[in-house]
Structures are given as C-alpha cells and as structure tokens.
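Hypothesis: this fold can be encoded by more than one sequence.
Test: take the structure tokens below, design a sequence, compare later.
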C-alpha cells in the first residue's frame, strides 16, 4: 500500500491524490457580481450540502497553485456576500468547462460558455437559465484554510431561494435522479454521469435494524464466493430464517442432495441474494445439516 505523508508530498501531487480519492464530487456552478456589476461564473467541485434546516451549502475557492492568487469568485463574495449556486447536468457540462479558464475581469463567462443569465429574486448575481436547479444564497461565513498555494476558503452559503426546472421532477414533485442527470467531478480530467446504470437503490429501513456481519454464521460470513456487498444483503435482515422455514424451503425446492460442497451452495444462492430471505434460507441449510 502506498502511504502518503502530506508534509513531504509536493502540493500538486497531494492535490491529485485527494481529488481522485474524494470522488465523485458534486459541482457548484457559482455566479457572482463584482463592484461594477459585471457577472462572473465559475465551477467548483469542492462542494456539498451540509444542513437542510437551515439550508446550508458550502463550497471552497482555492488559491491558485501556480501563483498563490485568489479567484474572482472569492473577491466578489467578500464584496457582496451573495452568490447563486447552479447545479451542472450532463446537458451543460461541456459548456461549463469553457468557463473554468481564467478570463480577464471584464470578460463574461456567461457569454463564453453560451449561458443565459436570468435575474434572481433575492440576490444580485444572475442565475444560469440552463441549469436545472439554481440556489440563491446569502454568504454566512468565509473561513480561510491556509495562505499557501492550493489553500481553500470555505464559503458557507445560506440558501434563501431555490428554483427547480419542473422537467426534472416526478409526479410527486420530487427530483428524479435520471431526469436531472447530474455530473460529478473525479480526479484529473475525468467526470461521472450520475444517471442510468451508474445509480442504484440501496434500501436499509431505519425501523428494521439488521443483524449485522457479527451475527451471521461463519459459513456465510467467511464465504469465498459471495462478495462483501452480497453478504451485507443477508446481514441487513432483522433476523435469520428459522430452522422450520429453512427446512420447508429446502424440501419445497428439492435442494437436498443438489450440492456437493459449500462452494456449490453459495454459487447457487449468489443470483438470489437480492431476494435476501430466500437466499438466507438456502445459505442457512448448512447450519441445519441439510447440505
């Protein structure tokens, strides 16, 4: 295993290790205005939601690695204490990358990226019309994290109004993951598309506490066939099936004598793991002398 000591690792290498490890990261497409009323638009992937009551999102504007200067976004926020955070969907991600360049102060990133500025309700910065969700924010606090190249400034944003394109909502007015089609940032030049086969439901009811790995029999816990994720599906059950139900299942499905060894049994159960209860009944046959 490669072990990294941040104190002896060059900043540019530390940057890449961190960004490739903490991924995917959501993208804040931040619009601000300067003292002359000029729009600024820039993407930041050091970004996340930190509270829903009050609604707080946080992003970081880092010092440039090459010359240790700060960015226009930070300057504008220090001046006005306002911003709009626009989310980035797959539909606009390539346009967004055009705005990540350091343009001269009087150049509009809205124009360079082909975006449409629309007025906000409660803050001065414009919203990005093409973004499916726009959050108008008042800045609560700016926390400098250092004074060297790559050092961040945590910008704590209080969301005072949200605008959501109805095209990304389902029938219950909730955001549909596939319709919003968000993009995430990875390491180096890589992005990820958070829709389709890349997303999956993982259900763990809060009112049904799973038994956990520690209460599984060793024959399941130490399986050489099932993955950790597959074993976790069995461990998420609130209780293991009873001996009576296991014996009934084996008899009903004529499983006795079907398997030569534990590996064959686990290979048979593997495709049924998502059914949990039935897979558990198959796997627990070993514990009741049915194999």
């Amino acid at each position: 295993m490669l072990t990294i000591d941040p104190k002896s690792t060059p900043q540019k290498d530390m940057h890449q290790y961190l960004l490739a490890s903490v991924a995917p990261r959501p993208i804040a497409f931040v619009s601000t205005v300067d003292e002359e009323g000029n729009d600024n638009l820039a993407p930041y992937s050091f970004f996340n939601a930190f509270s829903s009551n009050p609604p707080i999102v946080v992003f970081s504007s880092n010092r440039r690695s090459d010359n240790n200067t700060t960015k226009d976004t930070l300057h504008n926020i220090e001046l006005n204490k306002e911003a709009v955070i626009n989310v980035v969907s797959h539909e606009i991600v390539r346009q967004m990358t055009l705005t990540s360049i350091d343009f001269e102060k009087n150049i509009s990133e809205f124009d360079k990226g082909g975006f449409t500025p629309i007025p906000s309700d409660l803050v001065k910065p414009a919203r990005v019309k093409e973004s499916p969700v726009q959050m108008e924010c008042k800045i609560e606090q700016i926390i400098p994290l250092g004074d060297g190249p790559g050092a961040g400034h945590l910008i704590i944003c209080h969301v005072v109004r949200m605008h959501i394109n109805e095209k990304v909502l389902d029938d219950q007015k909730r955001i549909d993951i596939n319709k919003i089609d968000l993009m995430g940032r990875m390491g180096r030049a890589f992005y990820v598309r958070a829709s389709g086969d890349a997303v999956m439901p993982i259900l763990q009811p809060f009112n049904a506490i799973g038994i956990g790995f520690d209460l599984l029999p060793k024959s399941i816990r130490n399986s050489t066939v099932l993955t950790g994720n597959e074993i976790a599906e069995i461990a998420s059950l609130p209780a293991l099936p009873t001996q009576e139900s296991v014996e009934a299942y084996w008899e009903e499905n004529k499983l006795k004598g079907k398997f030569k060894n534990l590996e064959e049994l686990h290979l048979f159960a593997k495709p049924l793991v998502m059914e949990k209860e039935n897979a558990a009944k198959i796997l627990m046959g070993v514990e009741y002398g049915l194999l």
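The CA atoms of residues 58 and 156 lie 5 Å apart. The first helix runs from residue 11 to 21.
Hypothesis status: open.
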